[in-house]
Amino acid sequence: MSDIIENTNENPTFEDFKNENGLTYWWASDLMKMLGYPNMKSFQKVLDRATKAFVSLNIPHYDNILANQREIDGQTKQDFKLTRFACYLTVMNGDPKKVEVAEAQSYFAQQTRKFELYIGDHSEIDRLLIREELTEGNKSLSSTAKSAGVVNYANFQNAGYLGMYNMKSWQLEKRRGVKRGKLMDNMGRTELAANLFRLTQTEERIKNKKIRGQVNLEQTHFQVGKEVRNIIRQNVGKLPENLPQEKQLPEVKKELKKGYRKMKSEDSKKKK
Q1: Residue 252, SS3?
Q2: pTM for this one?
């Protein structure tokens, strides 16, 4: 991978795999090999995460990840045309444990400076995706809790915060100096994932143990929150309320959108 992206020993670079035919694009199958994935089936998960990132940014993914048939070794196979920004999101959503992915992420981190895209590492993209999952998780838990007898969802929700943070949501907002309803915008990847775990495990416990009634449901949410609190303390060495806060997610989105526009403009200029 390092030979491909760094152009050592006169080997082809990432730019050399570029195609131009009314659209500047890279084949997903080529990028797949660069990143060390054995086949399109395993790589599809990475493309799916990139697609979710596009949805989160409200950027049309169909304009950036285009399904297309391609002839490879005499066989017609499913492939995808990826724009430069799609390649960037795909690389940032790859498995960083893979040497090829880690090298590609480092390469893109350097290259994106000229596009004024200063996203530190893949964790920022992870934060966006987990935040989206939290939105869906809250909706799902709300529906399950309502069916099980919750009539005051605010109290039910705060029971989870009390268990996890030892304080209600509004108290945590005050402690962190954030606006009402904006708690999760500054949370880091670990804290967001922990809250997602709290929601999903509460829902599972409600369903599996057939818990019913406002008081019992609040107690269940509180207990799961307390268990998550202990997990964080044991694994991270900090209490949830003391976890470091990071760049606001709306700012991350704004920066990514700006980078997308600049990449799109850059490739449009090169075609002229």
Answers
A1: helix
A2: 0.86
- What is the maximal distance between C-alpha atoms in the chain? 69
Residue 184, domain member (yes or no): yes
Alpha-carbon distances of 239 from 183, 191, 205, 235, 264, rounded to whole Å: 16, 10, 24, 10, 43
Q: Residue 197 belongs to what domain range?
A: 123-253
At how many degrees (to 10) do helices 153-165 and 169-176 cross?
A: 50
CA-to-CA separations, 207 to 139, 141, 152, 197, in angstroms, rounded: 15, 10, 19, 15
**pLDDT band for position 1 (cuts 50, 70, 90):** very low
* Residue 127 shares a structural domain with residue 249: yes
Q: Is the dihedral of CA 56, 45, 89, 198 positive or negative?
A: positive
Residues 129 and 247 reside in one and the same domain: yes
Based on the fold, state whether residues 164 and 242 are members of the same structural domain: yes
Q: How many separate domains does the chain show? A: 2
Of 197, 219, 193, 196, residue with least CA distance to 206: 219
Residue 78, domain member (yes or no): yes
Model confidence over 24-55: pLDDT tens digits? 899 999 999 999 999 999 999 999 999 999 99
In terms of C-beta density within 10 A (0-12 exposed, 13-18 middle, 19 or more buried), how is residue 154 classed?
A: exposed
Mean pLDDT of the chain: 90
